[in-house]
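ESCALATION

Customer reports they have been waiting on this structure for their group meeting. Please prioritize. Original submission:
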Amino acid sequence: MTFNPDVDIPRVRAALAWMGAALDITLLVVITVVVVRGCRRAGLITFDAALFAGYTLSAWQDPLYDYSGPFALHSQYALHLPSWGPYIPGWQGHSDSHLNIETAIGLAGVGGFAAMIACVWTQWWLIDQVARRRPRWRRARMLPLGLLAGLVTVCFFEALAISTGAYAWAGAVRSLSLWGGHWYQYPLYECFAWTVFLTVAAMTRHNWRAHATIPHMFRGTEPAVSRGDNWTRLLAGVGFANVATLGYMAVNATATLFANPAPADTPDFLWPR
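Update from on-call: job pushed to the front of the queue and completed.
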Protein backbone atom coordinates (compact mmCIF):
# COMPACT_ATOMS: atom_id res chain seq x y z
CA MET A 1 0.00 0.00 0.00
CA THR A 2 1.41 3.37 -0.95
CA PHE A 3 0.65 6.92 -2.03
CA ASN A 4 2.24 9.21 -4.57
CA PRO A 5 3.65 12.33 -2.84
CA ASP A 6 5.07 13.68 -6.11
CA VAL A 7 1.76 14.51 -7.77
CA ASP A 8 0.86 18.17 -8.13
CA ILE A 9 -1.80 18.65 -5.47
CA PRO A 10 -2.78 21.82 -3.58
CA ARG A 11 -2.03 21.77 0.13
CA VAL A 12 -5.70 22.16 0.98
CA ARG A 13 -6.66 19.10 -1.07
CA ALA A 14 -3.74 17.14 0.40
CA ALA A 15 -5.05 17.94 3.88
CA LEU A 16 -8.57 16.97 2.81
CA ALA A 17 -7.25 13.61 1.55
CA TRP A 18 -5.81 12.77 4.96
CA MET A 19 -8.90 14.10 6.70
CA GLY A 20 -11.00 11.84 4.48
CA ALA A 21 -8.87 8.85 5.46
CA ALA A 22 -9.23 9.70 9.15
CA LEU A 23 -12.98 10.16 8.72
CA ASP A 24 -13.27 6.79 6.98
CA ILE A 25 -11.34 4.98 9.73
CA THR A 26 -13.39 6.66 12.45
CA LEU A 27 -16.63 5.86 10.63
CA LEU A 28 -15.68 2.21 10.20
CA VAL A 29 -14.83 1.87 13.89
CA VAL A 30 -18.15 3.45 14.92
CA ILE A 31 -20.11 1.30 12.47
CA THR A 32 -18.40 -1.86 13.71
CA VAL A 33 -19.18 -1.03 17.33
CA VAL A 34 -22.83 -0.25 16.55
CA VAL A 35 -23.27 -3.40 14.48
CA VAL A 36 -21.61 -5.69 17.05
CA ARG A 37 -23.68 -4.24 19.88
CA GLY A 38 -26.83 -4.72 17.83
CA CYS A 39 -25.99 -8.38 17.27
CA ARG A 40 -25.31 -8.93 20.97
CA ARG A 41 -28.62 -7.35 21.98
CA ALA A 42 -30.55 -9.38 19.42
CA GLY A 43 -28.60 -12.58 20.02
CA LEU A 44 -28.27 -13.13 16.26
CA ILE A 45 -26.92 -11.65 13.04
CA THR A 46 -28.99 -8.53 12.40
CA PHE A 47 -29.94 -6.94 9.09
CA ASP A 48 -27.35 -4.22 9.70
CA ALA A 49 -24.59 -6.74 10.36
CA ALA A 50 -25.41 -8.76 7.26
CA LEU A 51 -25.60 -5.63 5.11
CA PHE A 52 -22.33 -4.25 6.53
CA ALA A 53 -20.55 -7.50 5.72
CA GLY A 54 -22.15 -7.52 2.28
CA TYR A 55 -21.06 -4.00 1.35
CA THR A 56 -17.55 -4.65 2.65
CA LEU A 57 -17.25 -7.78 0.51
CA SER A 58 -18.65 -5.91 -2.49
CA ALA A 59 -15.44 -3.89 -2.74
CA TRP A 60 -14.01 -6.38 -5.22
CA GLN A 61 -16.44 -4.93 -7.79
CA ASP A 62 -14.92 -1.43 -7.75
CA PRO A 63 -12.93 -1.98 -11.00
CA LEU A 64 -16.20 -2.80 -12.79
CA TYR A 65 -16.75 0.96 -13.10
CA ASP A 66 -14.16 0.76 -15.87
CA TYR A 67 -15.25 -2.57 -17.35
CA SER A 68 -16.42 -1.10 -20.67
CA GLY A 69 -13.90 1.74 -20.74
CA PRO A 70 -12.29 4.39 -18.49
CA PHE A 71 -14.87 5.95 -16.19
CA ALA A 72 -13.59 6.53 -12.64
CA LEU A 73 -10.36 8.17 -11.50
CA HIS A 74 -9.10 7.81 -7.93
CA SER A 75 -6.81 10.25 -6.16
CA GLN A 76 -3.19 9.23 -6.67
CA TYR A 77 -2.31 11.04 -3.44
CA ALA A 78 -4.54 8.82 -1.31
CA LEU A 79 -3.28 5.52 0.11
CA HIS A 80 -3.81 2.98 -2.63
CA LEU A 81 -2.89 -0.40 -4.03
CA PRO A 82 -2.81 -1.79 -7.59
CA SER A 83 -6.21 -2.52 -9.09
CA TRP A 84 -7.26 -6.07 -9.89
CA GLY A 85 -9.35 -4.75 -12.78
CA PRO A 86 -6.89 -5.72 -15.55
CA TYR A 87 -7.23 -9.36 -14.45
CA ILE A 88 -11.00 -9.43 -14.95
CA PRO A 89 -11.89 -11.11 -18.28
CA GLY A 90 -13.11 -8.55 -20.83
CA TRP A 91 -12.07 -5.55 -18.75
CA GLN A 92 -11.50 -2.41 -20.90
CA GLY A 93 -10.33 0.15 -18.35
CA HIS A 94 -7.48 2.63 -18.31
CA SER A 95 -4.63 1.89 -20.71
CA ASP A 96 -2.21 3.79 -18.43
CA SER A 97 -1.18 1.34 -15.73
CA HIS A 98 -0.61 4.07 -13.12
CA LEU A 99 -4.32 4.96 -13.28
CA ASN A 100 -5.35 1.43 -12.34
CA ILE A 101 -5.44 1.81 -8.57
CA GLU A 102 -7.80 1.12 -5.70
CA THR A 103 -7.87 3.50 -2.75
CA ALA A 104 -7.75 1.53 0.47
CA ILE A 105 -8.79 4.15 3.02
CA GLY A 106 -10.82 7.28 2.36
CA LEU A 107 -14.12 8.39 0.85
CA ALA A 108 -13.75 6.04 -2.15
CA GLY A 109 -12.60 2.53 -2.95
CA VAL A 110 -12.47 -0.29 -0.40
CA GLY A 111 -13.08 1.91 2.64
CA GLY A 112 -15.96 3.64 0.91
CA PHE A 113 -17.72 0.36 0.15
CA ALA A 114 -17.42 -0.79 3.76
CA ALA A 115 -18.89 2.50 4.99
CA MET A 116 -21.79 2.31 2.51
CA ILE A 117 -24.16 1.27 5.28
CA ALA A 118 -23.81 4.82 6.64
CA CYS A 119 -25.66 5.95 3.51
CA VAL A 120 -28.42 3.43 4.23
CA TRP A 121 -28.71 4.64 7.81
CA THR A 122 -28.84 8.28 6.68
CA GLN A 123 -31.56 7.55 4.14
CA TRP A 124 -33.49 5.44 6.65
CA TRP A 125 -33.30 8.29 9.21
CA LEU A 126 -34.78 10.73 6.69
CA ILE A 127 -37.58 8.28 5.87
CA ASP A 128 -38.24 7.62 9.55
CA GLN A 129 -38.58 11.34 10.34
CA VAL A 130 -41.44 11.68 7.85
CA ALA A 131 -43.00 8.35 8.83
CA ARG A 132 -43.23 9.48 12.45
CA ARG A 133 -45.12 12.61 11.39
CA ARG A 134 -47.31 10.75 8.89
CA PRO A 135 -48.03 7.42 10.62
CA ARG A 136 -51.09 6.75 8.42
CA TRP A 137 -49.13 6.79 5.18
CA ARG A 138 -49.10 3.38 3.55
CA ARG A 139 -45.98 1.66 2.28
CA ALA A 140 -46.79 2.44 -1.35
CA ARG A 141 -46.84 6.13 -0.48
CA MET A 142 -43.58 5.81 1.40
CA LEU A 143 -41.69 4.49 -1.63
CA PRO A 144 -41.49 7.84 -3.49
CA LEU A 145 -40.43 9.41 -0.22
CA GLY A 146 -37.73 6.75 0.09
CA LEU A 147 -36.44 7.53 -3.39
CA LEU A 148 -36.38 11.26 -2.60
CA ALA A 149 -34.51 10.60 0.64
CA GLY A 150 -32.11 8.42 -1.30
CA LEU A 151 -31.50 11.15 -3.84
CA VAL A 152 -30.69 13.62 -1.06
CA THR A 153 -28.37 11.12 0.62
CA VAL A 154 -26.54 10.20 -2.57
CA CYS A 155 -26.06 13.82 -3.65
CA PHE A 156 -24.69 14.73 -0.22
CA PHE A 157 -22.12 11.95 -0.09
CA GLU A 158 -21.16 12.36 -3.76
CA ALA A 159 -20.70 16.10 -3.34
CA LEU A 160 -18.49 15.46 -0.31
CA ALA A 161 -16.30 12.91 -2.10
CA ILE A 162 -15.96 14.74 -5.42
CA SER A 163 -15.38 18.19 -3.91
CA THR A 164 -12.55 16.86 -1.73
CA GLY A 165 -10.94 15.22 -4.77
CA ALA A 166 -11.36 11.62 -3.60
CA TYR A 167 -12.42 10.60 -7.10
CA ALA A 168 -13.85 11.92 -10.37
CA TRP A 169 -16.17 10.51 -13.02
CA ALA A 170 -13.77 11.37 -15.84
CA GLY A 171 -15.35 9.05 -18.39
CA ALA A 172 -18.94 10.16 -17.93
CA VAL A 173 -21.37 10.86 -20.77
CA ARG A 174 -21.22 14.66 -20.72
CA SER A 175 -24.69 15.22 -22.13
CA LEU A 176 -26.12 13.20 -19.24
CA SER A 177 -24.05 14.89 -16.56
CA LEU A 178 -24.18 18.02 -14.48
CA TRP A 179 -21.22 20.30 -15.25
CA GLY A 180 -20.34 18.07 -18.19
CA GLY A 181 -16.89 18.65 -19.63
CA HIS A 182 -15.26 19.53 -16.30
CA TRP A 183 -13.36 17.17 -14.00
CA TYR A 184 -16.07 17.49 -11.33
CA GLN A 185 -18.87 16.46 -13.73
CA TYR A 186 -21.60 14.39 -12.10
CA PRO A 187 -23.33 11.74 -14.27
CA LEU A 188 -27.05 11.67 -13.54
CA TYR A 189 -27.38 8.00 -14.46
CA GLU A 190 -24.82 7.12 -11.77
CA CYS A 191 -26.76 9.20 -9.26
CA PHE A 192 -30.11 7.61 -10.07
CA ALA A 193 -28.68 4.06 -10.20
CA TRP A 194 -27.11 4.46 -6.77
CA THR A 195 -30.33 5.99 -5.42
CA VAL A 196 -32.46 3.07 -6.63
CA PHE A 197 -30.22 0.33 -5.27
CA LEU A 198 -29.67 2.17 -2.00
CA THR A 199 -33.41 2.68 -1.56
CA VAL A 200 -34.05 -1.05 -1.70
CA ALA A 201 -31.89 -1.53 1.41
CA ALA A 202 -33.19 1.58 3.19
CA MET A 203 -36.87 0.71 2.66
CA THR A 204 -36.20 -2.87 3.78
CA ARG A 205 -34.67 -1.51 6.97
CA HIS A 206 -37.59 0.89 7.46
CA ASN A 207 -40.15 -1.90 7.13
CA TRP A 208 -38.10 -4.08 9.48
CA ARG A 209 -37.86 -1.40 12.17
CA ALA A 210 -41.30 0.22 11.77
CA HIS A 211 -43.46 -2.80 11.00
CA ALA A 212 -41.40 -5.72 12.37
CA THR A 213 -41.34 -7.13 8.85
CA ILE A 214 -38.73 -9.83 8.37
CA PRO A 215 -36.43 -8.89 5.44
CA HIS A 216 -37.02 -11.20 2.49
CA MET A 217 -33.41 -12.32 2.48
CA PHE A 218 -33.87 -13.62 6.06
CA ARG A 219 -37.05 -15.59 5.40
CA GLY A 220 -36.62 -19.12 6.71
CA THR A 221 -33.97 -18.20 9.28
CA GLU A 222 -36.34 -16.87 11.96
CA PRO A 223 -35.75 -17.52 14.73
CA ALA A 224 -31.99 -18.01 14.34
CA VAL A 225 -31.37 -20.72 16.92
CA SER A 226 -28.15 -22.20 15.62
CA ARG A 227 -24.77 -21.08 14.34
CA GLY A 228 -25.79 -22.35 10.93
CA ASP A 229 -28.78 -20.00 10.85
CA ASN A 230 -26.55 -17.04 11.64
CA TRP A 231 -24.13 -18.02 8.88
CA THR A 232 -27.09 -18.22 6.51
CA ARG A 233 -28.21 -14.71 7.49
CA LEU A 234 -24.68 -13.37 7.03
CA LEU A 235 -24.30 -14.97 3.61
CA ALA A 236 -27.75 -13.68 2.62
CA GLY A 237 -26.57 -10.14 3.34
CA VAL A 238 -23.40 -10.70 1.34
CA GLY A 239 -25.42 -12.00 -1.60
CA PHE A 240 -27.97 -9.19 -1.40
CA ALA A 241 -25.33 -6.43 -1.32
CA ASN A 242 -23.27 -7.99 -4.11
CA VAL A 243 -26.26 -8.38 -6.42
CA ALA A 244 -27.35 -4.77 -5.76
CA THR A 245 -23.81 -3.51 -6.35
CA LEU A 246 -23.53 -5.53 -9.55
CA GLY A 247 -26.74 -3.96 -10.86
CA TYR A 248 -25.40 -0.50 -10.07
CA MET A 249 -22.09 -1.32 -11.78
CA ALA A 250 -23.89 -2.67 -14.85
CA VAL A 251 -25.64 0.68 -15.36
CA ASN A 252 -22.34 2.59 -15.23
CA ALA A 253 -20.38 0.09 -17.33
CA THR A 254 -23.07 0.16 -20.03
CA ALA A 255 -23.17 3.96 -20.10
CA THR A 256 -19.39 4.06 -20.46
CA LEU A 257 -19.79 2.54 -23.94
CA PHE A 258 -21.03 5.99 -24.99
CA ALA A 259 -18.72 8.07 -22.78
CA ASN A 260 -16.59 11.07 -23.71
CA PRO A 261 -12.84 11.43 -23.08
CA ALA A 262 -11.63 12.70 -19.72
CA PRO A 263 -12.01 16.50 -19.38
CA ALA A 264 -8.90 18.52 -20.17
CA ASP A 265 -9.02 20.28 -16.79
CA THR A 266 -8.67 17.03 -14.80
CA PRO A 267 -6.13 17.83 -12.04
CA ASP A 268 -2.75 16.11 -11.80
CA PHE A 269 -3.50 14.30 -8.54
CA LEU A 270 -6.28 12.41 -10.32
CA TRP A 271 -4.60 12.00 -13.69
CA PRO A 272 -0.78 12.36 -13.61
CA ARG A 273 0.50 12.97 -17.13
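Sent to customer with the following note: The chain has a mean pLDDT of 91.
Escalation resolved.
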